[in-house]
DNA sequence: GTCAGTCACATACTCCGAGTATGTCTCTGA
DNA sequence: TCAGAGACATACTCGGAGTATGTGACTGAC
């Protein structure tokens, strides 16, 4: 039976949240490299000891943030994909959801701008294997199965399409709020064109 | 009249070269973040003082390397583009030249894998404004002028296509030598598809 | 009720590496 | 020949990540 968490447990969860929130703010504004752990601790009104109690390292803190963001945002994109019968339609729906998420100030900035700098390319890719990269791969598989994409595509298409997503995410993350809607539209075009081109390239 | 450089000048140019070569090796193998300037100096058989005499900082050293690489490799790609009459044919020729350059062990690893980590996204983009990014932009302009691409494209297409180049470059940089030729072929397909898709998307 | 043990941090430290300040030797030009 | 500058080497500072240790609060066993 799920007994209420002890008072102690509540408090520690509160500081963990405070640390994640502070890190999200600072990493988004100043960037990962230019924020020290002392800064994060100060904003969360604790000390560095608290950080190393809850997280393994500075990249570890970032990764926890990353996981949290991807779990919700990428889940929404996957839901948008799976809601559609046609994989191409679903992929474009997921793309729209993705572009929308990147328009929100934190997601794109952290997951596609800061993450490679904070974790390095390999670790980043490894993290993404569970989220955006996996979703992209699944969508391409579904489109292949539906005959919308040449059957014998290699790993390159997935990597390159993922690069497109990253570029779009970064672009939106640095776009002023008033221009984001227009830029989202412009970002959509290359993906549509790519799918159209793949459909006629056998 | 271009008098011979003094003995002094020859020596200093030699150490500068040794530093750049050592940095190229270490940055390629261990990565920018995991190599200290003392390491670079040791391989070049000098000390850190020599580095700061020739370069402004650690990113400054990297940037000098970057410029040197792009000057030659990107020049070849641009030449390949300009040698063709048809802009689409020229763009694909430049792409092939680019993919070939990224198959060589240093170029792709430094310019597309390490550079964003070493310089940060903004500074990297600023450096690339003179080279790959500029070439890409010029090629898209030429194709637009030739009616191969919708006229009112925004900045997004350039950014996203540049993201594709980066992804392809990184992929080739981490591909084993024996697989590179096959992967180059796979990398070509998405670009061809994109251009084909843009041509029919008005 | 108390006491051992553990959790959730705070405090105080180490260590590494980028950047700086300064010294030294050599070459050059007046 | 001597003043100056160029080309480094040496010795330092300093910031920040990571570590070791201390401490108070809570909890669970007896």
TrEMBL record, chains A, B:
DNA-binding region range list: 36-55
Keyword Protein biosynthesis included in the entry's annotation: no
Family matches, as Gene3D superfamilies: Tetracycline Repressor, domain 2
PROSITE patterns, per the entry: HTH_TETR_1 (PS01081), HTH_TETR_2 (PS50977)
Record-linked Pfam families: TetR_C_41, TetR_N
Xref: InterPro entries: DNA-bd_HTH_TetR-type_CS, Homeodomain-like_sf, HTH-type_TetR-like_transc_reg, HTH_TetR, Rv0078-like_C
Keywords: DNA-binding, Transcription, Transcription regulation
HTH tetR-type domain span: 13-73
Classification via PANTHER family: HTH-TYPE TRANSCRIPTIONAL REGULATOR BETI, HTH-TYPE TRANSCRIPTIONAL REGULATOR RUTR
Protein name: TetR/AcrR family transcriptional regulator
């Amino acid at each position: 039976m799920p007994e209420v968490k002890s008072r102690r447990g509540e408090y520690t969860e509160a500081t963990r949240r405070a640390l994640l929130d502070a890190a999200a703010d600072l990493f988004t504004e100043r960037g990962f490299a230019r924020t020290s752990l002392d800064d994060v601790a100060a904003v969360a009104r604790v000390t560095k000891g608290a950080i190393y109690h809850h997280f393994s390292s500075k990249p570890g803190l970032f990764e926890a943030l990353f996981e949290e963001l991807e779990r919700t945002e990428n889940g929404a994109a996957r839901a948008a994909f799976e809601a559609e019968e046609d994989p191409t339609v679903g992929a474009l729906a997921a793309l729209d959801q993705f572009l929308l998420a990147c328009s929100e100030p934190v997601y794109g900035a952290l997951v596609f701008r800061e993450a490679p700098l904070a974790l390095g390319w390999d670790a980043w890719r490894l993290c993404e294997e569970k989220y955006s990269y996996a979703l992209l791969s699944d969508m391409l598989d579904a489109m292949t199965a539906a005959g919308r994409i040449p059957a014998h595509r290699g790993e390159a298409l997935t990597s390159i399409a993922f690069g497109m997503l990253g570029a779009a995410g970064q672009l939106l993350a640095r776009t002023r709020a008033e221009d984001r809607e227009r830029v989202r539209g412009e970002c959509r075009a290359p993906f549509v064109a790519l799918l159209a081109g793949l459909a006629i390239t056998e």
